[in-house]
Amino acid sequence: MAKKPLRVGTVGCGFMGRTHANAWRQAPRFFDLPFEPVLQAACARGEGRAQAFADNWGYGSAETDWRALVARDDIDVVDICTPNDTHKEIAVAAAEAGKWVVTEKPLALDAGEGEAMVEAVEKAGVPNMVFYNYRRLPSVTLAKQLIDEGRIGRPFHYRAQFLQDWTMSADLPQGGEGLWRLDAKVSGSGVTGDLLAHCIDTAMWLNGPIVRVMAETETFIRERVHQTTGEKAPVTIDDACQFLCRFANGAMGLFESTRYARGHKALKTFEVNGMDGSLSFDLHEPEYLDFFEYKSPEAGKTPSHTAGWRRIHVTNGEHPYMAHWWVPGLVIGYEHSFVHAVADFLTAAGKGRSAAPTFRDALQTQKVCEAVLRSAKSETWQETGAEA
Predict the structure, then answer these.
(1) CA distances from 257 to 194, 197, 216, 250, 343 (A)
(2) What is the Rg, in whole angstroms, of the alpha carbon atoms belonging to the chain?
(3) pTM of the model
(4) Contact present, 239 and 223 (Cβ < 8 Å)
(5) Which CATH superfamily is domain 137-332+357-383 in?
(6) CATH superfamily of this structure's domain 4-134
(7) Which end of the chain is less congested by CB atoms within 10 angstroms, N or C?
(8) Strand segments (E) across the chain
């Protein structure tokens, strides 16, 4: 039986636009979904660029004004893949037009804008989701399952890193296309909102709300040429950030992110230690989850002579999402986390719900990011206001 078509309008044709377009195309090929995504329209600032993107990915048409895309009667869901300073305006307009709305992370430029976006989608009653894709890697989802099963017991520590090295050259300009992440007016912040937001989302999904933080940030290169003016201007983003935190469940947290870790392109890790066990993940080997079991819910304490870290190869059919892919032993990667996000969104929407993280969920991550920046500025502990 033919599935109901869901006509997708994508705003933004850069790197994230490609990952999302691929996900919309692939999800119905591997998952049994209540809707059949139709790539209806792609939007970018330049007509040639928008049309080339549309032609390459199979969109039915191209637009150069996102307002025109949102106003179209033949668009059901608006997918926002644009810089952070545009998320609010597009999302609110889409919700007011009755469109379903999904957006790339972070939710918005700041918490105030995020609150307006939450209000808009909840008032309109439209399904919504933010693409915090790393929580949908099978190994990370398995970590969530093991924690929920009580496999690590009471959590004591959570630590996470996200390290890169791509902005270390003083000759790298800031701002403009491709480098808007180095312009705080467009991005909102540096590594805090770009990299640590991913870590914070994962952490609060696995371990509950982060309630207070103590942070330090650094900007190593204080001036860069701005691409749009050709003039040197102060750098207003954070190049590096580290913070301590407390979770609502009493666990202690330690987070670090930088774009000045020579040799690292995307070292994203987390480890959580509990009374009965520990879990560890490294994005460089996303098919693995490391697990130390001190005591199991079924058998009690693990015998000392067999205790130790074990590596779970998360490729079996019983592992999260993997029954939809290949045979055991064969791995999937980065792009598949976006496919999983689309599949989860459409499955939830078919039941009249939104898929996590919703705009409201992502607002909690935004609140923590802002508390981190406030703490770094004031050199004091800051409450986050994040809710469960």
Answers:
(1) 10, 10, 11, 23, 30
(2) 21
(3) 0.97
(4) no
(5) Dihydrodipicolinate Reductase; domain 2 (3.30.360.10)
(6) NAD(P)-binding Rossmann-like Domain (3.40.50.720)
(7) N
(8) 4-11, 35-43, 61-63, 77-80, 100-104, 128-131, 155-163, 210-218, 223-225, 232-234, 240-247, 252-258, 267-274, 277-282, 288-293, 295-296, 300-301, 309-313, 382-383
